[in-house]
Design a protein that fits this description.
Length: 302
């Protein structure tokens, strides 16, 4: 009983003290804690460095979720590792509401000095700024390997390419046994980039519409892969980014993540009605085109 009374007295004194300060404009107030920037959060990530050793091709910079293999400066490798951790946490929080446990296995990030080295070793065109590779256990959400390959002579490597590819890795395995459809995968990945890079895609939408290159929204959502016609890759990216942004703004990114999971488990029609009150693909197409182009847009695309 004595302890309870003592606690009550302390609590009352605490309340009265703060009440008096609240009513006294001269009373000193504690300074608010400064808001942590992205750079502050990245700096808090511990990075372990292992120098290149005899018989090994790479030095390594390790964080809880990434291993950066490189022959670059320690500073660049550390910046890439911390940025990757920041992108991972941000994308998980944005689309799924929580960061979740650390990855096992971690994601391996290879930093090639030049596009030529990258193209030779990975067998991809030098013009491709980066590539992510995810190996998933068949018919499961279990990831067996995560890998990102980048080349350091791309000026946008840290600005846009690494965030884009890291977002692809985040999304892999988050939809049960289903592969995330390309339109959603690319739309969500592009939206991880700075606004000026996002707008590089969106500003082409009017031209793609004028040239009759856009897809009806339902057709885009049900496409199994990228367009087979290489001339439609640009319209595919622009529309995918715009459609994902539209749906994310309608009800929030987490709702979009839940919608996509349910659509893949069942069908798009019922998921659209449940999460967005959209009765069919035609209505979705009309609403998206009003968002993308303004009122009075009626065409439904190819």
């Amino acid at each position: 009983m004595t302890r309870r009374i003592a606690f009550a007295l302390i609590a009352a004194l605490h309340f009265l003290t703060h009440a008096a300060r609240a009513g006294d404009p001269e009373a000193p107030r504690p300074a608010p804690e400064p808001k942590k920037t992205a750079e502050d959060l990245q700096a808090a990530v511990e990075v372990k460095h292992t120098p290149r050793q005899a018989g090994r091709d790479w030095a390594v910079a390790e964080t809880p979720n990434f291993r950066v293999f490189h022959n670059e400066s320690r500073e660049l490798a550390e910046k890439a590792a911390r940025l990757a951790e920041d992108v991972r946490a941000g994308a998980m929080k944005k689309w799924f509401g929580e960061v979740g446990p650390d990855w096992d296995p971690r994601c391996d990030v290879y930093l090639y000095a030049t596009a030529r080295d990258y193209s030779r070793d990975r067998g991809v065109p030098a013009e491709v700024p980066g590539v992510s590779t995810i190996t998933r256990e068949p018919d499961s959400d279990r990831i067996l390997r995560r890998r990102i390959d980048l080349h350091c002579d791309d000026k946008n490597m840290l600005v846009g390419v690494l965030p884009h590819e890291a977002t692809h890795v985040v999304l892999a395995g988050r939809f049960g046994p289903h592969d995330i459809p390309r339109w959603a995968d690319e739309g969500m990945a592009v939206l991880s980039e700075p606004r000026e890079r996002i707008n590089l895609h969106l500003r082409n939408l009017p031209r793609h519409r004028r040239d009759d290159e856009l897809f009806a929204a339902g057709k885009l959502m049900r496409m199994p892969d990228y367009p087979s016609d290489g001339r439609l890759i640009g319209p595919f990216y622009a529309e995918s980014v715009s459609l994902v942004e539209f749906l994310s703004k309608e009800k929030g990114p987490e709702t979009f993540g839940r919608f996509l999971r349910e659509a893949l488990d069942g069908d798009y029609g019922s998921a659209l009605e449940k999460y967005y009150d959209v009765k069919d693909f035609d209505e979705l197409d009309r609403r998206w085109r009003r968002y993308a182009f303004g009122e009075g847009v009626a065409d439904n695309g190819p």
